[in-house]
Amino acid sequence: MIMYFLFLAPALLLGLYAQWKVKSAFSEMSKVPARMSGAEAARRMLDNGGLQSVRIEQVQGHLSDHYDPRAKVLRLSSDVYGGRSMAALGVACHEAGHAFQDATGYLPLVVRNAAVPAANFGSGISGVLLMVGYLMSSKALILIGVIFFSAVVFFQLVNLPVEFDASARAKRELVAQGMIAGNEEHYVSKVLGAAALTYVAATLQSVMTLAYYLFMIFGNQRSND
């Protein structure tokens, strides 16, 4: 157990910091006024890219914003949908960036979407296999559990370029279409940069968890030899 926390402590601390950073940045940038609401900015960005068929809906929850590639719908939380702030513009256009990726067949997004079922299954079954494997001292079950968990790690790794690219598209379109001035880009970057840190923390946590599992398998194997 001590070894587990030694492996995971940096990732867990980074995750806590990232969550605080997102809330802090969003709160701060919500006070910086913008020329339009998040929904209006996303609509302009989508229309300019020929994505008039992508709908925008308002949903409940705080920072529950996401793009649904199956329904072709951009779902924005109330604070983002109607918010006329730099925070709202940044988040809304980031999600619109995912719609652009979907429309153009952006390869990392295609791979990520294809990996979702395996990652969900791997996340659920790996814990069971690892626990049973350790209780039964079965290296075969433990190894199978690690293999399934590797799908989660793969998903997190391929998710990073998807999220970074969506943020880059958002900032580029906001400036290019005159929704923000060039000297206002750093306001949007503050929110999107904080959000990016959460993806990095999640990826680091999954990678270090996998490293711990591998250490337990091969470390114990070397000690027994």
TrEMBL record:
Organism listed in the record: Rubripirellula reticaptiva
Residue runs in coiled coils: none
Transmembrane segments: 114-133, 140-158, 191-215
Keywords per UniProt: Membrane, Transmembrane, Transmembrane helix
Domain of life of the native organism: Bacteria
Protein known as: Putative neutral zinc metallopeptidase
Pfam families in the record: Zn_peptidase_2 (PF04298)
